[in-house]
Protein: Endonuclease III
Amino acid sequence: MADGGKTVVKQTAAKKAPAAKKVASKAVASKPPKTESRTALVRRARRINRELADVYPYAHPELDFDNPFQLVVATVLSAQTTDLRVNQTTPALFAKYPTPEDLAAANPEEVEEILRPCGFFRAKTKSVMGLSKALVENYGGEVPGRLEELVKLPGVGRKTAFVVLGNAFGRPGITVDTHFQRLVRRWQWTEQTDPDKIEAEIAALFPKSDWTDLSHHVIWHGRRICHARKPACGACPIAPLCPAYGEGETDPEKAKKLLKYEKGGFPGQRLRPPQAYLDAGGKPAPPLGAG
Structure:
């Protein structure tokens, strides 16, 4: 969610996130059948999204940014690292190079030194300087608001493009990151493994207006509760709708200890989170080197 005036983001009314619904530690009786009709799948998928919207009413992009340029750079930097590490790194980057013109003309070695904590800093320096140069030369220093133009920028693929379109321009898109891929397959919304095919199949289950918020809900759930190695099934509010219930810890007390970020009482990934997140009990992340 943007903190500046140029970005277009839906403002969510601040409210307390409801407590996670009680989940039985034994098998869930209402688990979806192995053979599910298309109509039943659509209904279940949309119900899961509604349930997650109640659990995460304050869900937002977990990268700090004030404008489309900052968001596209931050998203490129987030590859193979955490949003938290990017958020701890970009303040120094944008303080020194606030515009595409500044970053395009920067000394690569100085940029590399700033980006070192993000990992793969040489490749990422090349990408963000390259996309800055492309913005200056081809788009007058402005980030384009069209998918076809965004994916032409160095380091920008469909996933990054949809993050920017959905959160900086208010144009719906589905962000198929590793969390999204894992959960939609775990929920049996799709059997596809190719991100583009996953995107197409999931898009067909929901109205276009839901795509951006759906992405936030799924990704947030994957980071906080439905983890890759040990899902917190016993603390999951959508367990009755999940075909994979039981793959993780089903004991409610043990599952509660697996919760991450605000669900576990810990800081989130943004240094500057939206007010709605803070009002819901979320804690901002510390700056780089703090604590």
Remarks:
- The mean pLDDT is 90.
- Residues 121-139 form the longest helix (19 residues).
